[in-house]
Sequence to fold (738 residues):
Amino acid sequence: MSVAEPAGASESPRTWSPIVRLAAAGSSIVVALPEDGLPRVLHWGPDTGQLSEADFAALVQATTRPNAANGIDVDTSPAILPEAWTGWTGTPGISGHRDGRDWSPRFRTTAVTVTQEWNGGGIEVEARDAITDLGLTLVIEMLPSGLVRARASVRNEGSDAYRVDGLTLMLPVPTRADELLDMAGRWSKERVPQRGTFRVGTYTREGRHGRTGADAATLLTAGTTGLDFGSGEAWGVHVAFSGNHRTVAERIFTGERLIGGGELLLPGEVVLRPGESYTSPYLWGAYGRDGLDDVAARFHRHLRARAGHPRSPRPVTMNVWEAVYFDHDLDRLLELADLAASVGVERFVLDDGWFGDRRNDTAGLGDWAISDAVWGDGRFRRLVDHVKALGMEFGLWFEPEMVNLDSDLARSHPEWLLQVPGRLPVEFRHQQVLDIAQPDAYAHVLRSIVSLVTEYGIDFIKWDHNRDLVDAGSTVTGRAGVHEQTLAAYRLLDEIRAACPGLEIESCSSGGARVDLEILEHTDRVWASDCIDAHERQQIQRWTSQLVPLELIGSHIGAEKSHTTGRKLPLSFRGGTAVLGHFGVEWDLTEATAEQRFELADWVSFYKAQRALIHTGTLIRRDLEAGALWLTGVVAPDQSAGLFAIAFMERPVTWPAGRVLLPGLSPEASYVVTPAGPADGDAGNPKIYPEWWRNGSVTLTGATLATVGLDVPALHPDRAAWIAVEREPQTLAEGSGS
Ligand code: DGJ
Fold:
């Protein structure tokens, strides 16, 4: 990190450096720290290298703009929290007021702390506006992964209430970032990429679902034209919040391009009494020099470095939802458990329908007591014991933040439902939202879950959340309640995890509608989608992994005929697709033939053999043959091995497909390249398989694989082939001696 010494420290009360550079992993951010304003990012992107005091001064000169926009007499370049007093007419960083007053603050920095770390580092800025009586804390960090994260806290230092309408942090991107890429989606088709030109104006993605949303922007990326997985520069931002949020790309008439976002606060949702403060969610920023894979790699590296990141081999998981739905029957589930164990499943999860009067989705939600009708007379205990005796973990479904009106809980505590005066929100899957910001409701849920987890030794919770929070007001405060509800959900997850050591929790929300970096701080994996159709899953997982590493993405093999799309796909493609994640099974194995179960067991074994690599490797994605052929691979951090899947998503226009490059390996090393995965068809057929495949292997250098590539099997659409590469032992020895 470079820090400029304060210029003329004796004449100035300022005690901090006027400019700081934070750098890690090939990326840096250079931040000006003026006394009379808020921090301004002069550069975010490729690493500038060390900067001396003279370099800093030169950089300021070089980046101070002419006042060419007729009418504005100063450089209007915005701070990380843009303010109107600078002449900025784009989206304001802070909006709020006291009954119409104090609506346009001018913050002055009063203190700066810079953490002196060799890799990364952070800046904490304290600022005040004496006129509006507001205090502000801004934190900007560069993490060892090269990710930037920032957040702001506003404090009411006045004597009357201050209403916060929004805190929006923005990071600048250069003018060569001409394209925008973010995600759209819907139930069972999450994270669909969409592209556009970075036009003048404000492009805003608002999430008003009260949860992250199946259609969330997830990552908003500005990039150079033609930005791809492996090429082009990219600057991506993510708002880490599981409630309402806003992601913004803004290009204004003076030429600035900014990307950022914050929480989307509903009218009057946050009102600070004297002394209170509001903290924004983290805004995460990732710079990629070589395309979207570079951006993804930073997120993955960061998440994997966390102390709480799951490190044990991710267990093969069977979830029984699509096998039995609400039709719970002990004998059937015992049989399913037996079959699951026989194919190598390691965790067995009982989904919705085990509690209260929950025989379908219209009743019982919120009554977290084992159903007498279905699971009484010790039947539930028998299932748990049976699963454990088979050597599997036992997982259980909950939807703790929700309630059916037809439930004992809703009947006894109607005041615990989020609502607006005089009416309940429109029903959504026949359910309403429990206001867990109310301490008694919170305590009730906490108690119910912890006692069941403890009593039955539950290892895993599938934590669902199946409706939007609309009209979601508190009966206690009368205010909109999404903000408080979201924070309460985080607290609840943390308290349950603290009370139940070893328990893992999955974030599920009508499939993949709660996938963000903050929920991942409180859970152990995400359920990517309710759509288990492997063709669709290729896309959903490909784009979920733009943010989330494969080991945290629940990825199951479904039935031959998909329950959500009706598409029929062979087990080879379903298995090959599910391996690209935290693998599992969601298929009624009582209906599978013995042959199918053998093949499934092969996929389970393949996953088990490869999961250490898949769950630690660097992700590589390429769209080939005009998008007809998708390459997805992982390369071990030490480049000793790699595993690549080639999926034929469509029929390419020309045939057979061209050579495929396998990037990411060590150029000088030799690799033994072999077909991988359970055999699918006659591997000796020269009409389908290239010569090297029929011979069983070929040895090529990493450079050859990355530049010349190799031919791949000529497969039908919705088929995949797997290729393993392993560094030759002698090159290992040579490499280690050099
Ligand atoms: C929605 C989830 O995404 C499904 O997997 C399943 O758990 C159902 N809810 C149960 O109601």
User: Anything to note?
Assistant: Residues 2-65+76-305 form a domain with the Beta-galactosidase; Chain A, domain 5 fold (CATH 2.70.98.60). Residues 5-11 have pLDDT under 50 and may be disordered. The pocket of DGJ is lined by residues 321, 351-352, 397, 464, 466, 508, 510-511, 527, 530 (CB under 6 Å). The two ends are 31 Å apart (CA to CA).
